[in-house]
Amino acid sequence: MTTTFETQRAALADVVAIPVTPFAEDGSVAPDTYRALLRRLLDGGITTLTPNGNTGEFYALTPDERRLVTELTVEEAGGGSAILVGVGHDVPTAVASARHARELGAQMVMVHQPVHPYVSQSGWVDYHRAIAGAVPELGVVPYIRNAQLTGARLAELADACPNVIGVKYAVPDAAKFAAFARDAGLERFVWVAGLAEPYAPSYFSAGATGFTSGLVNVAPSVSLSMIEALRSGDYPTAMKVWEQIRRFEELRAANGSANNVTVVKEALASLGLCRREVRPPSRPLPESERAEVAAITAGWSI
Questions:
Q1: Where are the beta strands (DSSP E) in 62-204?
Q2: Distance between CA atoms of 157 and 168, rounded to whole angstroms?
Q3: Contact criterion met (CB below 8 Å) for 241 and 226
Q4: Strand partners of residue 111
Q5: Segment holding 179, helix H or strand E
Q6: Quick one: signal sequence residues (predicted)?
Q7: What confidence tens digit (pLDDT) does each residue in 115-150 have?
Q8: Which candidate, 183, 117, 116, 174, places its Cα nearest to that of 149?
Q9: 107, 136, 200, 243: least surrounded by Cβ within 10 Å?
Q10: How far is the C-alpha of 301 from the C-alpha of 295, rounded, in Å?
Q11: Is 6 left (phi over 0), alpha (psi -120 to 50) or beta?
């Protein structure tokens, strides 16, 4: 019997939350705080979670910490949410992480864009094929940040691995996204706008049906307001939400997204929800910029 992955596909066509990974005073992962942040997301109406995403500081976590974050997420979410576990690094590491996610009961894995300096397009297919082939029961979602990759290569991957069901597309070019999705197969995959709320309206107009979010850690209702508007085709309302979050996202995107996670954690710290600390190569927001983040957050009436 062929697996259709309909439940997983539906979960991707939504706000795909990327939880932060909070740290304790000694620098270790803070499990109780992480659970509380997850519970806030879940109670706020979020049903799709991506532990070990970039907003979760995936590349700054140790293998044991990544496993811990996955375990905590599955335990806290229970059976009522979809878990999309971030995996990556070398192939054996990514496969081990994917199998660990499967053993815990997660439904999907997101494969981080390979960070190898020499990525060929056929090698990209081979990398993802090795991971997807190791967990055929799981839905697999490539995280695409490579503007040179063609839609035909994604189609080639899915021909070999039918469990590749969705795409987190994070190339900042709406026209390129529209072409890529149609070359790969617009209806074949669930297209997730991987650059979050700022790009969601333009990417939805070209075929996306979900978007990732780090902002959702701070204000779940704001992210849900945007996707509700986009689902109904109400772009004027979606753009009002866009205007509401614009400055927050500009701060995150500044200097090559150097403060992408930092700004989110600063907002959470202003609410007393977690510590502001991030790990190198990120760094906490300077004192001079903290007040603006707190003021934006307070303006959302959270």
A1: 82-87, 108-111, 139-144, 166-169, 190-193
A2: 15
A3: yes
A4: 87, 142
A5: helix 174-184
A6: none
A7: 999 999 999 999 999 999 999 999 999 999 999 999
A8: 183
A9: 243
A10: 10
A11: alpha
